[in-house]
Design a protein that fits this description.
three-stranded antiparallel sheet, four-stranded antiparallel sheet, alpha+beta, Immunoglobulin-like
């Protein structure tokens, strides 16, 4: 490896480590890499609606069950910073007039996540099995004595059903804490942004087919409108 290539690798590794300590995601190289973008005073705002396939690849949580994920990227001009928060965005779909705010990771986690295992009380066995046992055998005793003996006893078994019974059904999916952590970590950061940054906004998916999401940002610099195409679900 040449010295130059080694320096490039070190720079990339350091950049990746620094980014790993921030919320949000790495933005695409330029605003033109997004299907919708708009220049404003001091920054450029860009966005894209993830396809169902992209959602499957990027999230362990099954967000395709009723949600749309919007990737929003902020490109500040040199020397400028932009205050961002999810509450500053409103969306409406297609020709609908009703607007929606992004859903918080906590709300989605409460809807999709199973109850945290750590919050469950210790389980109490549902059944106590009692077995009566009889033992018959032949024994030799001292002084030449021998004979048949009969013994009886009781066995108590605590736990699951007897062998051959079907196993009890188990809840599936991620717990609430895991879902909330995953969604919050990738969400659009809520702070003043002075460098290129991106993150996700989560919206409830409307009923029926839609082709456009109209996203409006209400910030200190005024309103910014983005008309974002939506890939139909196949």
């Amino acid at each position: 490896m040449s010295l130059r290539n080694g320096a490039i690798s070190i720079t990339v590794a350091i950049s990746a480590m620094l980014w790993a300590g921030q919320n949000g995601i790495r933005p695409r190289p330029t605003p033109d890499d997004y299907p919708a973008r708009e220049k404003a005073t001091g920054f450029t705002l860009a966005a894209a609606v993830l396809t169902p396939e992209q959602v499957k690849k990027r999230f362990a949580t099954d967000l395709n069950r009723g949600y749309l994920v919007v990737e929003v990227a902020v490109y500040p001009d040199p020397g400028h910073e932009v205050a961002m928060a999810a509450r500053d965005f409103l969306a409406h779909f297609g020709s609908a007039t009703e607007t929606e705010r992004p859903l918080t990771p906590q709300v989605i986690a409460a809807r999709l996540g199973k109850k945290d295992k750590t919050a469950d009380p210790p389980s109490v066995p549902a059944k106590v099995q009692v077995y009566n046992t009889e033992t018959i055998g032949y024994e030799r005793g001292p002084y030449g004595r021998s004979g048949v003996y009969v013994g009886s006893g009781t066995t108590v078994a605590v736990g699951g059903p007897p062998p051959g019974a079907p196993p009890p059904s188990q809840p599936s999916g991620m717990d609430r804490t895991s879902i909330e952590f995953e969604l919050d970590d990738a969400a659009l950061p809520e702070r003043k942004i002075s460098e290129e940054t991106a993150g996700y906004l989560y919206f409830e998916k409307p009923k029926g087919r839609i082709s456009t999401l109209n996203l409006t940002y209400y910030g200190e610099q005024g309103q910014i409108h983005l008309k974002i195409p939506v890939t139909p679900v196949k």
